[in-house]
Specification:
heterodimer, A: 297 residues, mainly alpha, MetI-like fold, two-stranded antiparallel ribbon, B: mainly alpha, 13 helices, globular
């Protein structure tokens, strides 16, 4: 432990500068910008909270928010609930050798870029060249072989599905790491007490991976409100505006319709949601500067 | 779940068979789309449309070469350059920051730690418009440097935390001994702490590389000229308004995914270590 304050700042300055400018000042500016009506070339006109009132009356905003919420609910189901169950099965002793292979393969999609996954799904679902509809027809389900991404009621679900395909293996891997840390004695004790596999899952596994569950839960929720790439690539918010999410609404308002003030207001809403969730996450893990993050919720 | 010596009940056997079948279906579901993309890249357009399930009649590299020439080569090299620079810069800046936060005792330490860490909480979209204006004001809009600085800023909070939690666990006695012998703090940092922390440096660099290689949004917004765009943008732009060369697009998707998958296979343990220190999806 050194006490030279000036020395400490020499090391810290690059990080402080970068984070201040591109994160903190940027967020501050975003709130400031949201109070004006302006575009790339015009002067800023003060409008107070008008961008926000317009936002809350905009049907596209509510569609976007609804789609983000759908994303959140389905992602939590798959990436927290189902991923944990899958991890627990893969960590069963009789399945361990196969399990190692399985988890590596299921992890690979999370390495691909969302752009590649988005394009992959778009091509798979394409009515002309994709294999999904051809496969459906081949097994006699031709009736549901529709234009999945061109249909307002199915588009967002296909985008959400692509995201689950990509990330279930990822959170499953995290759960596996957490399960591996549980001492074997716990399971042996449960077995002696007569617990079957399902009971030891609920009474041993679940309580002992509580920290990882909370972490995955908050990260997945935050992720659901940050969605952009998949939607932009697969549907660009369409057909019409049916699969719009807040991220694409921001992009479209700011960089296509050149309504920068309005787009900043969308940004402010995304900020409030993700910030609240992040605070919850940091508080849950009691991260502080004195030592390792503590477990208890 | 010890089973040797004990007779398994029929229900257990049935459940296990079902579990194995389920996982086989999942494996197929994960692998088939990737396999389909890689294989389809070898096909002609007619084959793509008529026989999506069959193997290509001839493994022609036409699409792969075609897409490389059409411009993916430029996007690919941009991606390599921006990814390597951002990952290196992030590692240096984060290690510099983590060092005093784990070794110095000064008044504002707790504050600056939380200040940097809380940068994690920001969704990149929130700062999209402000950073677009900030970069313009700094004359860094539409430049490699601007893009690299934004990537670095967004990766520093997590990478700093990763390194800090590792620095906290490395023994301080050796450093203190060196300190008595009159070693400067930079020498301790550079000659002792960094060499001891190679695994976590590798982890930090890999996770940043994955993030930057795969990112689409920043390249879309913070650069304008096609000459500076990275590969996710390049791929999406292959999807033309009128008529897309599907074969080339599929080949491009494969080309863009290979580096990161190879990197993962070679460095699996560093990847997984990073995931466990506090998982943040890229």
């Amino acid at each position: 432990m050194y006490k030279n304050t000036r020395g400490a700042y020499l090391y810290l300055i690059p990080a402080i500068l970068l984070v201040s400018v591109f994160i903190y000042i940027a967020v501050g500016l975003n709130f400031y910008y949201s109070l004006f009506r302006w575009n790339t070339y015009s002067e800023k006109v003060w409008v107070g909270l008008a961008n926000y009132t317009r936002l809350f009356q905009d049907g596209n905003f509510w569609t976007g928010l609804k789609n983000n919420l759908l994303f959140a609910v389905i992602s939590v189901t798959f990436q927290v609930g189902i991923a944990l169950a899958l991890a627990a099965v893969l960590e069963q002793k009789w399945l361990r050798r196969f399990g190692g292979f399985c988890r590596t393969v299921l992890f690979v999609p999370s390495l691909l870029s969302m752009t590649v996954v988005g394009l992959m799904w778009q091509l798979m679902l394409n009515p002309n060249m994709g294999f999904v509809n051809k496969a459906l027809k081949a097994v006699g389900l031709g009736a549901i072989a529709i234009d999945w991404l061109g249909n307002a009621s199915t588009a967002i679900f296909c985008v959400i599905a692509s995201s689950q395909w990509q990330f279930v293996g990822y959170t499953m891997m995290l759960f596996i790491v957490a399960i591996q840390k549980i001492p074997d004695d716990f399971y042996e004790a449960a077995e002696i007490d007569g617990a079957n596999a399902i009971q030891s899952f609920f009474y041993v596994t679940v309580p002992n991976v509580r920290e990882m569950t909370l972490l995955n839960l908050t990260t997945t929720l935050i992720g659901a409100f940050k969605v952009f790439d998949e939607v932009y690539v697969m549907t660009n918010g369409g057909p019409g505006r049916a699969s719009e999410v807040l991220g694409t609404l921001l992009f479209r308002s700011g960089f296509r319709e050149d309504a920068m003030g309005y787009a900043s207001a969308v940004g402010a809403v995304i900020f409030v949601i993700t910030f609240a969730l992040s605070i919850a996450q940091i508080r849950m893990f009691k991260i502080d500067s004195t030592g390792q993050k503590g477990g208890e919720g | 779940m010890k089973s040797h010596g004990i007779r398994l009940s029929p229900t257990t056997v049935l459940l296990r068979v079902l579990a194995v079948i389920l996982f086989c279906i999942m494996l197929a579901g994960a692998l088939y789309p990737m396999y389909w993309v890689a294989m389809s890249g070898f096909k002609t357009t007619t084959e793509l449309l008529i026989s999506p399930f069959k193997l290509p009649s001839a493994f022609s590299l036409k699409n792969y070469i075609g897409v490389w020439k059409v411009g993916i080569s430029k996007f690919f090299l941009n991606s390599v350059f921006i990814t390597v620079s951002s990952a290196a810069l992030t590692a240096v800046v984060s290690a510099f920051a983590a060092f005093p936060l784990s070794r110095y005792r000064f008044k504002m330490r707790g504050f600056w730690f939380m200040f940097l860490l809380c940068g994690l909480m920001l969704a990149p979209q929130v700062s999209l418009i402000s950073n677009y204006k900030i970069l313009q004001a700094l004359h860094l809009y539409d430049s490699y440097l601007g893009l690299i600085l934004v990537y670095t800023a967004f990766r520093v909070p997590y990478t700093m935390f990763l390194m800090w939690s590792y620095f906290m666990t490395t023994p301080k006695d050796i450093e203190e001994a060196a300190c008595i012998d009159g070693c400067s703090s930079f020498m301790i940092f550079w000659k002792m702490l960094i060499p001891m922390s190679k695994p976590i440096m590798a982890t930090g660099i890999l996770l940043t590389a994955r993030y930057v290689w795969n990112d689409f949004l920043f390249s879309l917004i913070y650069t304008e000229s096609a000459a500076l765009k990275t590969i996710p943008y390049g791929l999406n732009s292959l999807k033309g308004e009128s008529g897309t060369d599907w074969g080339q697009l599929l080949a491009g998707m494969t080309i863009s995914s290979i580096p990161i998958i190879v990197l993962f296979i070679c460095t699996q343990k560093y990847f997984v270590r990073g995931l466990t220190v506090g998982a943040v999806k890229g």
